[in-house]
């Protein structure tokens, strides 16, 4: 069994679910016609998360965009990165433009200072309540509360390289971190940014193999991008997907189902030009461990 990392002592909380999708796709739950593919038993833990589990007291986030740092494992599936800046998206990746417009605002970039500079950005995540932000555990360390922020509206204007005005919100507490030995974390933000940017509900219902998944993310410290594709299957605690491109900086992004609900947290690159899959922790596993979700 994996080691339990840490949780801050907090009162009971309730998940706020608002910001509905502008489309009518239904959840793609398991069914006899579309069985889950189980490829393994929890072998996909991110190297940084393994460092954290091994020595949580001394763990420091590598605040630079690199999946599987120091290895040759990439995260672009195939020869081309198909991700698109959200405001330039035309609906060609399998989800509609209305879907992206409905679900992009709660997505934020974690940053090491309240700065508009791309160099400050290092991970991604999603507002799941007015003051709660879901991300990856390996994006959190002992200096997160003292130093770090979330940047919202870090996007390019449509048809332009101009970056829109960002809002920087202070991280005030680590609410959950690595419960159940899972690479996820929930942090509390100052104020109530969800009332401005909306929130995304979580759904622990499993998406079937072949079902639609989308990731709205900040890859490689870039302004917000959309990538979508299909689920390959399950590998232990993880969803796997072989046609959804990510990069360093995408860690912590919510994995969305066809209805725009968070069904997982993206954590790992694993795709190469010739195969492989990227992956993220399944919400069904997170919900079983969490006191909030």
Key terms:
Thrombin, subunit H, 6-stranded antiparallel barrel, globular, disordered N terminus
Give a verbal description of the structure.
With 293 residues, the chain is mainly beta. The protein has one domain: Thrombin, subunit H, CATH 2.40.10.120. Helix content is 10%, strand content 26%. It is built from five helices and 15 strands. The chain has helices spanning 47-54, 97-103, 144-147, 194-197, 283-289; strands at residues 6-7, 84-85, 107-111, 121-129, 132-135, 149-152, 167-177, 185-189, 212-217, 225-230, 233-235, 238-241, 254-256, 262-268, 278-282. Strands 2-10-9-13-14-15-12-11 form an eight-stranded antiparallel β-sheet. The radius of gyration is 17 Å and the shape is globular.
CATH architecture: Beta Barrel
Strand content: 25-35%
User: Fraction of residues in helices?
Assistant: 10-25%
Count up the domains.
1
Number of continuous helical runs: 5
Quickly give the structural class.
mainly beta
CATH hierarchy, class: Mainly Beta
Strand element count: 15
Strand order of the largest sheet: 2-10-9-13-14-15-12-11
Shape: globular
**Largest sheet, strands/sense/barrel:** 8 strands, antiparallel
What are the segments in which pLDDT stays under 50 over at least 5 consecutive residues? Answer: 1-42, 66-72
CATH overall fold name: Thrombin, subunit H
Q: What is the H-and-E element order? A: EHEHEEEHEEEHEEEEEEEH
* Rg, nearest Å: 17 Å
Q: How much is the average pLDDT?
A: 85
Measure the end-to-end span: 22 Å
